[in-house]
Design brief:
The protein is mainly α. It is built from 9 helices and 2 strands; from the N terminus they run ααααααααββα. It has helices at 2-13, 20-31, 33-37, 42-48, 52-77, 87-100, 106-117, 129-175, 197-224; strands spanning 185-186, 189-190. The N and C termini lie far apart (102 Å).
Length: 225
């Protein structure tokens, strides 16, 4: 159908928010989560991971199915089947994660699930959505926030270094006289700039030359007469 074809063409023409590397990474997580997550630590998850909001924008149904399956596996492992009794309970928890932590990497969310299974967070015998979200906040404070601050400091240092290099270049060009404003010479007179000592001197010299030329021409005219 023409309408359906046009809709498909518009979708295909929409640019992807992911780079090629991020697309490959996301496909790996969706197709083979365990293999892709092998050896992943917080630092690599942050530096090489796919932001959750980007992943949802590109493959929302598949990403939510992935989180739902991993959360269901986690609830069975920690024996939390009483608090997460239905698929709706699990889906609500996944929706809360996507809404509250959009800037976290998808790999970081999966790492939180892994750390909970490994007993790195105290559950106190009660695993609910609130406890899950608190574990994610704790992970973010312990890992993500620290790495974001380091990244910000490195970017700031790079900008300051570049700014310093520009200042040095301007100073060097000023010393060489390459940045001085050009002045046009019209009828042997410089266009003066206010409060410029060099312009005042140039203007006085030009006036003296003009006066001398006028006197010479006057003397010649008198001699002819």
């Amino acid at each position: 159908m023409p309408g359906k074809t046009s809709i498909q063409s518009v979708k295909s023409a929409t640019p992807s928010a992911l780079s090629l590397t991020e697309t490959q990474r996301l496909n790996g997580l969706l197709n083979n989560t365990r293999e892709t997550m092998q050896g992943v630590v917080p630092s690599t998850a942050y530096s090489q991971g796919v932001t959750l909001c980007k992943a949802l924008r590109e493959r929302k149904p598949q990403v939510k199915v992935l989180l739902l399956a991993e959360l269901e596996r986690l609830t069975r492992h920690v024996n939390a089947t009483r608090t997460f009794q239905t698929q709706t309970d699990l889906q609500d928890a996944v929706d809360d994660i996507c809404e509250l932590f959009p800037s976290m990497k998808l790999e970081e969310v999966l790492l939180v699930f892994k750390h909970i299974r490994q007993g790195r967070y105290q559950l106190y015998g009660n695993f609910t959505t609130n406890v899950l979200l608190e574990c994610m906040r704790q992970y973010e404070m312990d890992n993500t926030v620290t790495m974001r601050e380091q990244e910000h400091a490195e970017r700031k240092k790079t900008i300051e270094t570049a700014s310093l290099d520009v200042r040095r270049l301007i100073d060097d060009l000023n010393k060489d006289g390459k940045l001085r404003n050009s002045r046009k010479l019209l009828d042997r007179k410089y266009i003066p700039y206010p409060n410029d000592k060099e312009d005042v001197t140039s203007t006085q010299q030009a006036a003296q030359e003009t006066q001398q030329e006028t006197r010479t021409e006057t003397n010649k005219a008198r001699a002819k007469s």
